[in-house]
Design goal:
The longest helix has 19 residues, at 2-20. The protein is 43% helix and 21% strand. The protein starts with a helix and ends in a 5-residue tail after the last strand. By secondary structure, the chain is an alpha/beta fold. The chain folds into 2 domains: 40-146 and 281-307, Response regulator (Rossmann fold); 148-279, Response regulator (Rossmann fold, 3-Layer(aba) Sandwich). It has helices at residues 2-20, 55-71, 84-96, 113-121, 148-162, 178-191, 209-222, 234-246, 262-269, 281-296; strands at 27-29, 40-42, 44-49, 74-79, 101-104, 126-129, 142-146, 167-173, 197-204, 228-231, 254-259, 275-278, 304-307, 310-313. The strands form 3 sheets. It has a 6-stranded parallel beta sheet with strand order 4-3-5-6-7-13, with helices on both faces.
Length: 318
């Protein structure tokens, strides 16, 4: 009898150990009727986006959710709404909740570093989507984004084509964000190939329409002979469009944007904006979840995954 009791105690102890095993790398879940090799990891992933109001990030979230749902993962989606302090609080909450991974699109590529370091110390892997972290010492497993340098080059080529290789150009910038830094880098490198095109101004519109409108107004007043504006996203381009129209310079100042959201596409179709660089936010979202899945499963993940951009112009709507 004692022998049987001892065997039962050993069995119960082993069962408890198995139940408690596994922490940050997720818990194996097997669905009834499926072979063991098809079992999935049940993960909880914390997400802090730049914003949830912009169509780009709405599509990015849709891509994250679609791929997460197909793998049985739970997403906790939040957004900093351009406020890095708010985003820090969101990441801290994810750490307290002991999520299996964190996805962040930083509101500020440098300031977010302290929060990512805290996640590193907690043993939670961090992935960045669309916007990279530029803070020293902050460890990110993988950055998944558009090839923004190549996208900036496409924008410059569109401007050069519209101006027939000669004219004065302004850039409405947002230098706190890494993806914009890359876009402007590509744009400036490419536009420099055209000796008769001069960049006469580069001012921040902070990536939002109303501030971009005021920035564009200042540029137009300082440079009445301006020929083109490159807006680093569509809010910047649409803000610039409003300023150009208010100044009575419709058709005389070419505008090229970045994102190709529906409102910008409609403006291109109406001949108000010349062209837009196209991103694939849904694909960025899907590939981010795939990168997490590979990493948690013990696979190798590239430190950077770049998604190609395209160009949308009036020619595409004819």
């Amino acid at each position: 009898m004692r022998k049987m009791i001892n065997q039962s105690v050993v069995f119960m102890a082993l069962a408890a150990i198995v139940t408690l095993a596994g922490c940050n790398k997720g818990e194996k879940v097997e669905k009834k009727g499926e072979p063991a090799e098809k079992s999935q990891l049940s993960l909880t992933i914390g997400v802090s986006l730049l914003t949830r109001t912009h169509p780009f990030y709405q599509d990015l979230e849709a891509g994250l959710k679609e791929e997460a749902d197909s793998n049985g993962y739970n997403l906790l989606v939040t957004a900093g709404e351009f406020d890095v302090a708010r985003q820090r609080d969101q990441i801290q909450d994810f750490i307290v909740r002991k999520v299996n991974a964190i996805i962040v699109s930083p509101c500020d590529s440098k300031s977010i570093g302290t929060s990512i370091k805290s996640a590193n110390e907690a043993g939670i892997p961090v992935f960045t989507a669309d916007i990279a972290c530029l803070a020293e010492g902050a460890k990110v497993v993988s950055h998944i984004a558009s090839d923004n340098v190549a996208g900036g080059r496409l924008a410059a080529q569109a401007v050069a084509k519209a101006l027939n290789g000669t004219g004065k150009v302004a850039i409405i910038d947002h230098p706190e964000v890494e993806s914009v830094i890359q876009r402007v880098k590509g744009f400036e490198e490419e536009i420099a190939k055209y000796k008769d095109i001069q960049v006469v101004a580069k001012l921040s519109g902070h990536g939002v329409k109303d501030q971009a409108f005021r920035t564009a107004e200042d540029i137009l007043q300082s440079h009445p002979d301006l020929n083109a504006i490159f807006g680093i996203n569509d809010d910047s381009a649409l803000g610039a469009l409003a300023a150009v129209e208010k100044a009575g310079k419709s058709g005389r100042v070419i505008i090229v944007g970045f994102d190709a959201v529906p409102e910008a596409r409609a403006a291109i179709q109406g001949g108000k904006i010349y062209a837009d660089v196209i991103q694939k936010p849904t694909e960025i979202g899907k590939q981010t979840i795939d990168a997490i899945k590979t990493y948690i499963s013990g696979g190798m993940v590239p430190s950077t995954i770049l998604i190609p951009c395209g160009l949308f112009s009036a020619e595409d709507v004819r």
